[in-house]
Specification:
DNA-binding; 5-stranded mixed sheet; D-Maltodextrin-Binding Protein, domain 2; WH-like_DNA-bd_sf; HTH-type_LysR_regulators; Arc Repressor Mutant, subunit A; alpha/beta
Length: about 325
C-alpha cells in the first residue's frame, strides 16, 4: 500500500493539465512542441514537468540531444495519464450530449470482418431504439482494438484476444466465425484460373495485415506448414479500406474477411481465388475489461450483438453469397 503522504502529495499537486502535458511530451518528445500542443509557454511547461517529477519523486523522462525518452517508471505514469485523459474526455462528451438533450455515448472497437454483419445489424437496431445515443465505432484489426480497450478509449470490442496473457485483463465471449478468402482484382492474370496453389501465389505481390494481427499470424503459420517463405513483394497495411483500394489498383493478392469483400465480389470488382485458407482462424467475440461493469448503453448493446450474431454463426459463409 502507498503511504498516505505519497497519495496526498499526488492528489494535492497533480492536475489534468499536468497529465495533458505528459501525454503531449510522450507524443512529441520535445518540450517546445508539447507546450504548443497544450497551449502554454515553454518555460511554464518545463516548470510543470519539474513539479510533476518532484511530486512522483523520480524522473519521468531522460533528456538527451535528440529529445526526451520516457524512463521505465515514466512509461507507467504515461500509460495512466493517457487512460485518465481518455476517461475525462469521454465524461465531458457524454455530459455535453446529456446537456443538449441526448442520452449518452457508446464507443465500440470492431474488426472490419464484423462490421458488415453483426455490428451493422446491432447498431441499426440500437439507433432505432435510441436515436439520440451518440455511437462511435473505432478500430480495424484486433491488436489495435485491444489496445484501445486497454487505454479505456472504448467501452467494449468486437475482436479477438491477440496474446496468451490477455485473458488476465479481459473477458472474451465468442460470437461468430470469420471466413477469410483470397481475392484479386477482376483483371488479374489469376482471376480466371480454376485452381491455384499457395506456392504459386507467394510469387505474386501481396497486401497483408501487420505481423501483430491474428490473420497475419495465421497466414504465416500456413506458409510455414507448407514450407514456404513470406512473399518477398509485400505491402503491409493495417487498413482494410486501403487494402481494398490497393488490390483494385494493381495485381496484388490479399487475404480478407469474406463479409468485407462480399459486395466487391458481387459487383465484379474483385474475384475470389479457388484456394481455401485460414480455416483455423478463431472466431471473434465480445471483449470487455474484467472487474469493470459496463455502462448501461454498452450492456444493452451486448444483448443486441448476441441476438444478431446467432443466425450468422449458424449459416455457413458460402451460403451467404
Amino acid at each position: 500500500m502507498p503511504s498516505p503522504a505519497v497519495v496526498l502529495s499526488l492528489v494535492n499537486r497533480l492536475k489534468f493539465k499536468h497529465l495533458a502535458l505528459l501525454v503531449a511530451l510522450d507524443d512529441m518528445r520535445n518540450v517546445h512542441q508539447a507546450a504548443d500542443q497544450i497551449n502554454v509557454a515553454q518555460p511554464s511547461a518545463s516548470r510543470m514537468l519539474g513539479d510533476v517529477e518532484e511530486a512522483f519523486g523520480f524522473q519521468l523522462f531522460e533528456r538527451n540531444a535528440r529529445g526526451m525518452t520516457p524512463t521505465t517508471l515514466g512509461a507507467v505514469v504515461l500509460a495512466y495519464a493517457r487512460r485518465a485523459l481518455a476517461e475525462l474526455t469521454r465524461f465531458a462528451e457524454d455530459l455535453d450530449v446529456k446537456r443538449k438533450g441526448g442520452h449518452g455515448q457508446l464507443t465500440v472497437g470492431a474488426i472490419m470482418g464484423a462490421a458488415p454483419d453483426v455490428l451493422a445489424l446491432a447498431v441499426a437496431a440500437l439507433k432505432t431504439e435510441r436515436p439520440l445515443l451518440n455511437v462511435r465505432i473505432l478500430g480495424e484489426t484486433s491488436d489495435q482494438i485491444v489496445q484501445l480497450l486497454y487505454r479505456r478509449e472504448i467501452d467494449l470490442a468486437l475482436a479477438r484476444l491477440t496474446t496468451s496473457l490477455q485473458h488476465n485483463d479481459f473477458h472474451f465471449e465468442p460470437l461468430a466465425r470469420e471466413t477469410l478468402v483470397l481475392v484479386v482484382r477482376t483483371h488479374h492474370p489469376l482471376a480466371r484460373r480454376e485452381s491455384v496453389s499457395l506456392a504459386e501465389l507467394v510469387q505474386w505481390p501481396w497486401v497483408a495485415q501487420p505481423v501483430t494481427s491474428p490473420a497475419r499470424v495465421l497466414f504465416e503459420e500456413e506458409l510455414a506448414r507448407a514450407g514456404l517463405n513470406t512473399p518477398a513483394n509485400m505491402i503491409e497495411c493495417g487498413s482494410i479500406f486501403a487494402t481494398l483500394q490497393l488490390i483494385e489498383t494493381y495485381d496484388a493478392i490479399a487475404m480478407l474477411p469474406e463479409s468485407v469483400v462480399r459486395d466487391h465480389v458481387r459487383g465484379k470488382l474483385l474475384v475470389e481465388l479457388p484456394l481455401e485458407i485460414g480455416k483455423s482462424l478463431p472466431g471473434y467475440g465480445i471483449v470487455t475489461r474484467k472487474e469493470e461493469p459496463l455502462p448501461e448503453a454498452a450492456h444493452h448493446f451486448v444483448g443486441l450483438l448476441r441476438r444478431f450474431s446467432q443466425p450468422i454463426a449458424d449459416i455457413p459463409a458460402r451460403a451467404r453469397h
